[in-house]
């Protein structure tokens, strides 16, 4: 739904500032409202003997100041966007996961402080990449001039529809091109493929599989330029290298394992740790 906002977690860190700016650009590109959230420790309200009410009020006031500053930065960065804010008295992971339920996508910084303490990959950010109830963008890298390219890593074994849909829609919103990248390593029946002619034949077959996979989205977005790339390399290394000249890397998520618990695939996990630009974990609801 177009009413679903772009939700971003805010705190007093430089990483969160970059996330707010990125989310403001995303809201402008997508024509959506930006909703900025800051979390404070609810135990301040639950343990009055250990934390007097005035302490809770002081923390809440500081949180409102953080939200107000984030709102001003977002509007200054992208004038005209609609911005709302919310102070939530919950653990950061709980707050963000709850927000993701009704968000178009959730945006978090690579590192954080204050209400989102420990927002590094391996803590809150990684938990959101694994457990959010919709798409998640981890804002990595420094702000640079747009490259005009969205890179999407394609797994030909898993269903590629969700990451392809996200990548093409993101490119259409930004007037960017899509680079569909598939990296493969000789394993199984291909383990003995060494001859250059054989390698070329394998990669040509893979290229046609990629073209077939994204045909639906190319047709839906005819103005989006598309290129395909097949590399004999580790997928994480290939996507990390491609991220150096990309505005966004899009990867899929393996949503459930045999225990029916959300999990993040090893490639997605590696990319969000090493990418040089923001990474979108494309997940269906």
Which properties best describe this structure?
285 residues; alpha/beta; Rossmann fold; ten-stranded mixed sheet; 9 helices; 10 strands; elongated
Strand content: 15-25%
Rounded to the nearest angstrom, the distance between the terminal CA atoms is 12 Å
* SS summary, helix count: 9
Q: How many strands in all?
A: 10
* Level-2 CATH architecture of the largest domain: 3-Layer(aba) Sandwich
Radius of gyration: 20 Å
Give the integer mean of the pLDDT values.
Answer: 84
**How do the SSEs run, as a string of H and E?**
EHEHHEHEHEEHEHEHEHE
Specify the biggest β-sheet: 10 strands, mixed
| Shape assignment | elongated
- Name the helicity range: 40-55%
Question: How many domains would you count in the coordinates?
Answer: 2
Which strand order spans the largest sheet, edge to edge or round the barrel? 3-2-1-4-5-10-9-6-7-8
For this structure, the CATH topology of the largest domain is Rossmann fold
Low-confidence regions: 113-122, 255-262
Helix/strand/pairing category: alpha/beta
- Let me know the CATH homologous superfamily of the largest domain: HUPs
Q: Which CATH C-level class of the largest domain is it?
A: Alpha Beta
């Amino acid at each position: 739904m177009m009413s679903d906002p772009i939700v971003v977690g805010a705190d007093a860190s430089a990483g969160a500032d970059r996330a707010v700016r990125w989310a403001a650009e995303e809201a402008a590109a997508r024509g959506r409202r930006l909703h900025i959230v800051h979390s404070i420790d609810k135990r301040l309200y639950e343990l009055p003997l250990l934390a007097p009410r005035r302490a809770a009020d002081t923390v809440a006031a500081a949180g409102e100041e953080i939200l107000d500053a984030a709102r001003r930065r977002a509007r200054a960065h992208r004038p005209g966007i609609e911005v709302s804010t919310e102070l939530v008295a919950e653990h950061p992971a709980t707050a963000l996961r709850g927000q993701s339920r009704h968000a178009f996508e959730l945006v978090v910084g690579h590192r954080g402080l204050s209400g989102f303490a420990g927002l590094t990959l391996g803590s809150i950010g990684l938990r959101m990449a694994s457990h959010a109830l919709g798409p998640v963008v981890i804002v990595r890298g420094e702000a640079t001039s747009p490259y005009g390219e969205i890179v999407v890593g394609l797994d030909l074994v898993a269903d590629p529809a969700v990451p392809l849909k996200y990548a093409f829609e993101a490119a259409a919103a930004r007037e960017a091109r899509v680079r569909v990248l598939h990296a493969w390593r000789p394993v199984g029946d291909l383990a003995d493929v060494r001859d250059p002619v054989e390698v070329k034949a394998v990669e040509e077959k893979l290229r046609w599989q990629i073209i077939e996979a994204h045909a639906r989205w190319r047709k839906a977005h005819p103005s989006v330029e598309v290129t395909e790339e097949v590399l004999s390399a580790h997928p994480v290394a290939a996507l990390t290298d491609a991220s150096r000249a990309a505005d966004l890397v899009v990867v899929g998520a393996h949503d459930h394992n045999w225990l029916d618990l959300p999990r993040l695939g090893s490639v997605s996990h590696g990319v969000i740790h090493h990418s040089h630009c923001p990474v979108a974990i494309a997940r269906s609801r």
